[in-house]
Amino acid sequence: MRPVICWFRQDLRLADNPALAAAQADGSPIVALFVLDDETPGIWRAGGASRWWLHHSLQSLGDSLEEIGGSLVLRRGRAESVVCGLADEMGAKAVVWNRAYEPYAIERDKRLKAALLARGIGAESFGGSLLREPWEVRTAAGTPFKVFTPYWRAGFAQWQPSPPLPAPTSLRSALADIESENLADWNLTPSNPDWSGGLRTAWHPGEPSAQFQLSGFLARLSEYAGSRDAPAAAATSRLSPHLHFGEISPRQIWHAVSSQPPSSSAEKFLSEIGWREFSHHLLFYNPQLPHAPLDPKFAAFPWSSDAEKFVRWTRGRTGFPIVDAGMRELWATGWMHNRVRMIGASFLVKQLGVDWRRGAEWFWDTLVDADLANNSASWQWVAGCGTDAAPFFRIFNPVLQGEKFDPHGAYVRRWVPELQLMPDEFIHKPWTAPSELRKGAKSYPEPIVDLAAARARALEAYRSLSAP
DNA sequence: TGAAATGTTGGGGCG
DNA sequence: ACGCCCCAACATTTC
To answer: Which end of chain A is more exposed for a tag (fewer CB within 10 A), N or C?
Structure first.
């Protein structure tokens, strides 16, 4: 019997996987395939932290497939040729996959589909990584949305997803022995040095862990609205990397959260899932989102070229504790609390005047949840050059933000041990502490900018955008 | 999903 | 008792 190839991409799960379910329903033997693609033109090659996650997620997916009588075939290369080649090799009946929405992925998949159909091989794609397809949600005029709130109201207020699909309990596997590469040979995990210790402590990639994480979050859902902005509180879901790799689907999350009693927390959290949808909507209709400001006024913005300050930002040595704590959390664990991402990003763009794309690139390389749509849309939001963007005058003050959201400095002390003994009163502005208190924190840097002066410079630069 | 500057109000000290 | 000033505390405006 001719097999169906189920091509796994950003959907590394068995449950609620429409492509896999369709392959099962077809009745043909199934070949589960993953392709490590660093070659497709325009691709955003996965960064270091993402590659670490991918390694473990693939391991987990392979294990899960084996438990139900299947296996995961690993190949490397330009995906179009690899998939086509394997389909030829197997005499495949069809290839199925769940859609991805990065511009290069859309182009690649379009070419692949045409190539397969031209060879008489079936090709079908499914929606499973988003709640709604980007083109499903439109304004009354039929145009894409530019602003989140109307997008959310139009697309999701009176809307319920269909229930998630169950995971297959046994896989009708292709009998032929199919050559697979060795995951270890892909060198996705770091060595010399192995910097992944903090990631291993913080995370457990894979579909079972994603479900575990979701149920843990549901148990503390009621705290979400009140504590989501406190980085020390661990009140957020921490589902972002699981979602990015598709170890859990947004439909599973939606279903689980909306089965809880209605609450402001549930509503707030679902709207955050909505921001993820909105980012993909924006990327779909604005393929330049990752590399060009949506607002053309920003084309000639006078960004700073101060490499030294940028490096200090990346390493968490700016002298502003809440910023440095966040950047060190990112470096150590591959993740940063959402509130601190906003503070740190605003600091880079507005206080240091550095191009948002430098920040986006750093995040891309260091985040385990690095996602082209979310990352690009969020940085454009912070920089004020997106469509639904933070107004230019919204400049976070890292001292005030720290005092507001980390009032006792618990988060800062966790990631900036130099400030362990600094009293709460000075924890977010240690340079103002009496000298005897600063002695214990001697290795902590002085602030690299004067907040008031930098703020004035930023306002001037942004104001000049709209001036004639 | 701001912050700072500016304006307003009202209680209390004081002559 | 009264007017005056000071200045938190809060509200509004501006960037």
So the answer is: C
A373 in the same domain as A236: no
Nucleotide closest to A460 measured between CA and C1' = C15
Does A322 lie in the same domain as A443? yes
Cβ atoms of residues A19 and A12 within 8 Å: no
User: A366 with A440, same domain?
Assistant: yes
User: Which positions on strand B lie below 7 Å from a protein C-beta?
Assistant: 1-4
Residues A458 and A311 in one domain: yes
Domain of A239, in residue numbers: 130-162+208-285
Q: Quick one: tokens of A290?
A: 């990752």
Active-site residue A52, yes or no?
Answer: no
In a domain, A136, yes or no: yes
Beta bridge pairs of residue A35 = A75
Q: How far is CA A347 from CA A86, A237, A419, in A?
A: 48, 25, 20
Q: What is the CATH number of the domain that holds A139?
A: 1.25.40.80
Q: How far is the C-alpha of A369 from the C-alpha of A361, rounded, in Å?
A: 13
> Is A29 within the bounds of a domain?
yes
Q: Which nucleotides of C are covered by protein (CB under 7 A)?
A: 15
A379-403: per-residue pLDDT in tens? 999 999 998 888 888 999 999 999 9
**Stated in angstroms, how far is A425 CA from B15 C1'?**
39
- Examine the fold and report which residue of A223, A258, A285 is the final residue of a domain before the chain moves on: A285
pTM score > 0.85 for this model? yes
Is the CB of residue A349 less than 8 Å from the CB of residue A392? no
Catalytic hit among A107, A181, A338, A418? A338
